[in-house]
């Protein structure tokens, strides 16, 4: 482009010299040369305009490319941020689930610990009542001793129970089994006292026939046949259909 401009300048300089050399050219030739020069100048000016327009377009394209690149970068940054937030949300969801699970486990453990101190409903010998956990534990421990034939330890455990839990719903059962533990030790007089107390406090208890038979057995062991016969007669009369009454008839028949 710069070379063509230099050529144009040279032509224009030549055209300026034409009047001085008019004698060398005819008028038509000079006019024709001038018209050609003007056409070339016009073409060069148009080329310059197109070049300038093309440069503007290139600048606009560059600006557009930069804008698109910025938008692309912003879009990538936005995607990265969305991915980060999505990951953070998933982590929060997992953390929440873990927290809820731990809380549930803690609540279950707390409920279990609370239940250890709450009264429990117990059904025993046809009766329902509530007992404290420690009552239940001590009663079952004493029963375990009795089942293993550790009569002295069982009797001691039952006596301790009655002192500590005097109003317990286990009271009737504890007195009945205390009498049996004493009988197992051959402590017949204490056993008689225990069975009499049981009968006095629990006249409607389902184990009354068994207690009467056990009382008669203690009396027999003490050679008190008269009292034993009286107790057996009472049992047979008051509870004729019981298994204890059938056993009482056999024991009475053996008495002299």
UniProtKB/TrEMBL annotation:
SUPFAM superfamilies named in the record: TPR-like
Pfam family membership, one: YfiO
Keywords: Cell cycle, Cell division, Coiled coil, Periplasm, Signal, TPR repeat
Coiled coil segments of this chain: 27-102
Signal peptide limits: 1-22
One cellular-component annotation, GO: outer membrane-bounded periplasmic space
Top-rank lineage group of the source organism: Bacteria
Keyword Coiled coil: yes
Ranges of the TPR repeats in the UniProt entry: 172-205
Keyword DNA damage: no
InterPro entries the record matches: BamD-like, CpoB, CpoB_C, TPR-like_helical_dom_sf, TPR_rpt
UniProt GO BP: FtsZ-dependent cytokinesis; protein trimerization
Domain Outer membrane lipoprotein BamD-like intervals: 135-255
Compartments reported by the entry: Periplasm
Family, as annotated: Belongs to the CpoB family.
Main function: Mediates coordination of peptidoglycan synthesis and outer membrane constriction during cell division.
Name of the protein this chain belongs to: Cell division coordinator CpoB
């Amino acid at each position: 482009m710069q070379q063509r401009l230099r050529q144009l300048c040279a032509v224009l300089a030549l055209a300026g010299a034409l009047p001085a050399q008019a004698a060398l050219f005819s008028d038509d030739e000079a006019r024709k040369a001038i018209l050609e020069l003007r056409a070339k100048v016009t073409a060069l000016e148009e080329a310059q305009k197109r070049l300038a327009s093309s440069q503007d377009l290139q600048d606009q394209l560059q600006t557009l490319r930069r804008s698109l690149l910025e938008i692309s970068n912003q879009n990538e940054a936005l995607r990265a941020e969305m991915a980060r937030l999505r990951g953070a949300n998933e982590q929060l969801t997992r953390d929440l689930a873990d927290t809820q699970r731990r809380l549930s486990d803690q609540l279950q453990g707390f409920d279990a610990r609370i239940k250890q101190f709450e009264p429990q409903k117990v059904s025993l010998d046809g009766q329902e009542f509530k007992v404290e956990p420690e009552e239940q534990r001590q009663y079952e421990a004493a029963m375990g001793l009795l089942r293993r034939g550790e009569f002295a330890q069982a009797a001691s455990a039952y006596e301790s129970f009655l002192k500590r839990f005097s109003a317990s719903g286990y009271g009737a059962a504890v007195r009945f089994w205390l009498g049996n533990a004493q009988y197992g030790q051959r402590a017949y007089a204490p056993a008689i006292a225990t069975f009499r107390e049981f009968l006095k406090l629990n006249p409607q208890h389902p184990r009354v026939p068994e207690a009467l038979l056990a009382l008669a057995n203690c009396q027999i062991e003490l050679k008190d046949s008269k009292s034993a016969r009286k107790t057996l007669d009472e049992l047979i009369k008051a509870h004729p259909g019981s298994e204890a009454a059938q056993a009482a008839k056999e024991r009475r028949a053996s008495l002299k």
